[in-house]
Amino acid sequence: MSEGGMAEKWLWRLLPWRGGWIPHRKNEGHEEERHVKANNREYNDRFFYADNRIKTSKYNIFTFLPINLFEQFQHVANAYFLFLLILQLIPQVSSLSWFTTIVPLVLVLTITAVKDATDDFFRHKSDQQVNSRQSQVLLDGRLQSEQWMNVRVGDIIKLENNQFVAADLLLLSSSEPYGLGYVETAELDGETNLKVRQALSVTSELGADIHKLAEFDAEVVCEPPNNKLDRFTGTLLWKDNKFPLDNGKLLLRGCVLRNTEWCFGMVIFAGLQTKLMQNCGRTTFKRTSIDRLMNTLVLWIFGFLVCMGIILAIGNCVWEKSMGGNFQKLYLPWDEVLSDAFFSGFLTFWSYIIILNTVVPISLYVSMEVIRLGHSYFINWDRRMYHAQRDTPAEARTTTLNEELGQVEYIFSDKTGTLTQNVMVFSKCSINGKIYGEVYDEFGHKVEITEKTPCVDFSFNTLRDRRFRFHDHSLLESMKLNEPAVQEFFRLLSLCHTVMPEEKMEGDLVYQAQSPDEGALVTAARNFGFVFRARTPETITVYELGKEVTYQLIAILDFNNVRKRMSVIVRNPQGRARLYCKGADTILFDRLDTASEELLYTTSEHLNEFAGEGLRTLALAYRDLDEDFLRGWTQRLWEASSSVENREDLLALLYEEIEQDMTLLGATAIEDKLQQGVAETIACLTLASIKIWVLTGDKMETAINTAYSCNMLRDDMHEVFVISGHTVVEVQQQLKSAKDQILGLKHEPSFNDSVDMEKRDSKYDCVFEEAVSVEHALVINGHSLAHALEADLEGLLLDTACLCRTVICCRVTPLQKAQVVELVKRRRRAVTLAIGDGANDVSMIKTAHIGVGISGQEGMQAVLASDYSFAQFRHLQRLLLVHGRWSYFRMCNFLCYFFYKNFAFTLVHFWFGFFCGFSAQTVYDQWFITLFNIVYTSLPVLAMGLFDQDVNEKNSIRFPKLYELGQLNLLFNKRQFFLCSLQGVYTSFALFFVPYGVLSHGVRDDGASITDQQSFAVTIATSLVIVASVQIGLDTNYWTAINHFYIWGSLAVYFSILFAMHSNGIFGIFPSHFPFIGTARSSLCQPIVWLVILLITVVCVAPMLVVRFLRADLYPTPTDKVRRWQLASRRQHPHEEGLRRVRRTSSRRSAYAFAHQEGYGELITSGRNMRLTSCSGLGSDPAPPAWKMHGNSSWIENLLKKRLTTTSGISKCVPNNSTDGIQDEQHTD
User: Distance (Å, rounded) from C-alpha 1183 to C-alpha 1170?
Assistant: First the structure.
């Protein structure tokens, strides 16, 4: 390797990687296409392609110190204290010792550095774990085990079943026929269904022959690295031929090989250039809004100090010029007498900057870090956020963002594995007009199903799935009684699907389904005795109640988004041909025979009931086929499938022709199992004025069904806008139309508007009230979102989305998730939180102000990239409404009090300057200045910052409206800072002038004067400590033993140190440091001094007490009302009522989300995925392939136009059910 290449390699290892940032490589910025030769590392190294090492950490051993210090000194306060430290090292201007600043500054920098180093250590550990994974690489003509980080572009890798893909690979060959391979892409898009990949036919012939693979010398010319997961274009050059490459031939890093014994692939992109890592986003340094405000306030305070310094410096100039000669060397230790008054004023200016810098002491930042650390431990120790099943506690992975949790306005959530468990459960069904799946007691009353409810015993079935649970015994009894409708129902479920079975051991069946929906239905049929066992391109084998039955598969009429149904045509062993169909009820009911009219009425009511419970519904029907008709139809199907022009339209007409006059069997109801408490959590967070957007890689139908189950979509909405345009113009028109409709409706006066106005007028009269629904929702898919995120449309997109109650983005890439989050951050300036559980969520987790990872089914990538992690989505409610709100409340109270006491403490020097010749002399002795913030007042304010609470945890959740205080930033802002600073200025004024006015004319008991400077300083210092203690007592809302101990203990410590520093003993040890013997004892034994202290306390505290009393009585805040109610309820011990479980009622909708793409129908009937290659047809004709249809419209659009389903010849109204929400609870004070 050249010297330049070696230097670049070392630079690559030294410099930290920052998320999406990739080190510069030669010509990389101008890479227009990539050239990769197989088995030729020397050729590929010329292009300096990235190796397969990943690095998500920020630092290494060489860069940690400079980069971390650079990040820390981005805090204005740290730079400010460094500047003060430099000033204090100059003897001519320093009136305080340098150690009063350097010790706490180093402490703060060290604590933060240790915390950052610990976080980065775990990132290094994770990187090392991934980089050290083993992979089989073809080197020197044989397979060798290599670590992932040693894999290079152009290498050929062997993968085995259930292994992760190490890099972006071009699939060359596999164990499956025709070079097919199946992958699970959960780490990329959150989908757990299988995707099909197929190698080129010329490379699939290589098989597993190591010799042929080692001699494979093809060149791939393709696009440069990018983040588009669904696109790849390239060309394979081999043996003087060119072969086109697309995304279907690529195995992406992060995928898992499934249902494939082995495969070989050629590395195209490695490491940071893989599509997964290109989508991972940038690791940023996150700071809270309070941190950013503090930077501004520090600048303000510094400007204020400069102003005070200038005033005092001007005073010093005047003093020196007029009277300075009479007071030479009285205060500052000048080496020589200063004759220049201006230079004296210049030095005095810097001296006062040092003296007055305690307005923002370094101890403020030490205390903030301690409080944040304590809040993080409270989250870690919270047993209510502990998930016992996975033994997973909540974890605060950062200590810098706790108060930001109390200000969240937007939540961006993944769907699969975050809101749902990604587990589909066969819950209920309707067969021949009867509902199965409900449980009744001996009195005929419906019983709620719980974990303790007895399950149906399927032990008679040796092929059952032991994890399947069903509680209605009557369905199994009907099956055993050989009821025809029940058996036909489950026969349909066992035949009409595209599931692939895998049986490694006898009876140990594993179903590989394209979606969990199909898997749940086939598993239900399996347990009730209709076991789908095997398939070939021409047959389906089912064990029906223990008997093997093989059906001839004639055709598969596959699913797509236009048809919203799928059918199979089979012939049973008796020779009877039958069509089985399942699909959306809105489509299927229009194709039924008139004989099913009465059953349709009943089934329709059952579907409404199922949908009202949030279940995913599906209708089932069949049709017996005449042999002559079927023969002619099959011939026409074969001709249509062979047509070059209008093939899809011809096939659609044929499908439509045969799927008519069907007989209704019933309907299924699948529960897309939400995580526990998801609906209640979303309802509660919505009441807290938090907007929840769902960003998912899943298909639109599945996402909308989940949104209905979560109560995010409701039928009482005016409109659900679906944005599905394929061009910029179409997307712009759809967004503009949606926005105009919303604004048009909002401008129309209505009863709801008057209700909203009343609620706004009296929003504080009832804190816990049901959220007022915004009657619109926005659903947008990935290709439309790509256009909407362009600079010209992003404003329109955001405006329209923010007018809607619910926003759902479907089929989005990881990078698009991050772009949506960034858009809201940048243009709304709102605090955002992103929550997810997979690698596809890492990008948005890093982009949001707060990232939350759920330790779920999709690995730990999201957790490792997150700021907070736990096991269940429902814990988010407690994280925000309890820990977040408390952290924000405590931090704001802490800051208000801290600025108050330090303004009161520091500005006494300003007033004293007018009485000491502007000589930069301090009122207090140096030890009091050093110990005031570190010892005398540090622990009480820490106790308040750690343990205080305005309302308890139950009422924090019970009254979500309290959370709005943080969103509106009402507790600490520039106005609050000004008010607490003004109170501090007033207190400092009273602290100085009350004792000055009293003691200047006062005498001791023996008649001697009491106006010496040391007695004056002791009086002011003692008054300050007592006033600060009384003030923090009044500011504390929740008293604990720790608060009492710290406040009374601090007072005791102050007096102990005060008397010790003025004692004979310490004077004997350090006579030069403690020369004022007996000052404290002689001063504090005088009644006039205690009278002054009492007078100061009353003057300082009384005005604040009056203002607080009047404000709470005349203008009570929501917190005041809840506290009053909390106090009253504590006295009366009322019966606590919990939140009702949110249950939605809605119009029925189909759960036919069987495929995130087109189905497997063509693949199955073509036989390309089967090891058996024999084929048979209907009669003498070959069996035609079942081609798929493509359409432009979505079933959602039709569903929205057809809210109340009516069938042919039937006039029946679907009841307009209302939705149960969280019941309003009115409380009176």
Answer: 15
**How many whole angstroms from its chain centre is CA 1028?**
41
Buried b / exposed e along 1140-1166 (16+ C-beta atoms within 10 A): eebebbbbbbbbbbbbbebbbbbbbbe
Size of the chain, expressed as the number of residues it contains: 1229
Q: In the structure encoding, which two tokens stand for residue 1018, read together? A: 């002791």
Alpha-carbon dihedral sign for residues 1191, 1196, 1201, 1204: positive
Which amino acid, residue 444?
Answer: G
Question: d(Cα 754, Cα 746) in Å, to the nearest integer?
Answer: 12
Using CA atoms, how far apart are residues 325 and 782, in angstroms rounded to an integer? 81
Residue 223 carries which side chain, given as an amino acid letter?
E
Q: Which tokens is 917 given?
A: 């010749």
Place of tokens 């501090």: 984
Tell me the CA distances in angstroms from 256 to 165, 192, 352, 584, 1059, one per residue in order: 6, 10, 67, 32, 73
Identify residue 1177 by its one-letter amino acid code.
G
Two tokens, residue 370: 């301690």
For the residues of 7-40, what is the DSSP string, one character each?
A: HHHHHHHHSPP-TT-----TTGGG--SEEEETT-
Residue 921's nearest CA partner among 348, 325, 315 is: 348
3-state secondary structure of 540: strand
Separation CA 216–CA 1071 (nearest Å): 90
Residue 466, φ and ψ in degrees, nearest 5: -70, -15
In the block, tokens 């706790």 appear at: 402
Side-by-side strand order, sheet with 180-184: 194-198, 180-184, 256-258
d(CA 827, CA 845): 18
Task: For residue 564, give the nearest of 585, 543, 580 by alpha carbon.
Answer: 585
Q: Rounded to 5 degrees, what are φ and ψ at 727?
A: -130, 165
CA 939 to chain centroid: 35
Task: Tell me if 674 sits within 8 A of 710, measured CB to CB.
Answer: yes
Closest by CA to 237, choosing from 21, 11, 458, 40, is: 40
Determine the Cα–Cα distance for residues 1108 and 1102; give it in Å rounded to an integer: 10
Residue in this structure with the two tokens 């004759």, named with its chain if needed: 339
| Strand blocks (E) in 801-937 | 806-810, 831-836, 850-854, 868-870
Q: Averaged in consecutive runs of 10 residues, what is the pLDDT profile of the chain (1229 residues)? A: 40 35 41 90 91 85 88 78 80 67 76 83 85 92 92 94 93 88 77 79 91 93 87 90 89 89 95 85 74 88 92 88 61 53 84 85 82 93 90 88 93 83 85 91 80 86 89 89 93 91 79 80 94 88 93 88 86 94 89 90 89 81 94 89 75 91 93 83 92 85 80 82 90 92 62 40 35 69 90 92 91 88 92 87 89 73 84 93 95 95 94 87 84 89 94 92 92 94 95 90 70 86 95 93 94 92 71 69 86 94 92 89 86 53 48 50 66 41 36 39 37 35 36
What are the φ and ψ backbone dihedral angles of 663, each rounded to 5 degrees?
-100, 125
Question: pTM for the full model?
Answer: 0.71
CA distances to 8, 41, 51 from 4, in Å: 6, 18, 17
Strands 776-781 and 806-810: parallel
Torsion of CA 203, 227, 792, 828, to 10 degrees: 150
- 792 assigned to active site: no
d(CA 227, CA 239): 31
Contact 811, 698 (CB under 8 A): yes
Rounded to an integer, what is the distance from CA 368 to the centroid of its chain?
Answer: 25
- Which entry of 120, 414, 715, 950 is annotated as an active-site residue? 414
In the DSSP assignment, the letter for residue 592 is B
Helices marked H in 140-288: 186-189, 201-204, 210-215, 275-278
Q: Which two tokens stand for residue 591?
A: 């194709």
**1144 backbone φψ class: left, alpha, beta (φ>0; ψ -120 to 50):** beta
| Structure tokens given for 747 | 């401008």
